[in-house]
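Late entry, written up from scratch paper. The run itself happened at the end of the previous shift, but nothing got recorded in the book at the time, so transcribing now.
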Amino acid sequence: MGFKVDIDFSKIESKLANITDDKTMLEIHNALARYCDPYVPMQEGMLTGNLNITPEYVQYNSPYAHYQYTELVYGPNIPVIKNGEIVGYWSPPNKHPTGAQLNHNVKGQKHALASSHWDKRMMEDKGDEFTEEVGRIIKDRLKEG
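Output as recorded:
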């Protein structure tokens, strides 16, 4: 003996289609940035402080964000010398990978979990928590109707 059940998913499908609205995606991206923050390299806060969060993306806007994310040194990095001491470095607009690696475990690092590819590292460590939060956000949107 068996039975057949027909379920009409049209109402829930239309609700699920609406969860990609700007408000929902902005909330999800804000959560992503919050979860990633402890993994973003930080000495003075310039990288985490120069962040755009939109419904479409999370973007780190500092000019060196890509280098920090890939953990690769780009160059050439030409020393600026004053009074016989190196006081900084100058780089031309077009840089190339040098083959050297950045070290995120440097003196003054304020985020102990800092790493390259911080989004992937966060997902390894906190992926379940982040996924649960995204689920809560979506459930809240579905309740709103």
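The longest strand covers residues 85-90.
(Scratch paper discarded after transcription.)
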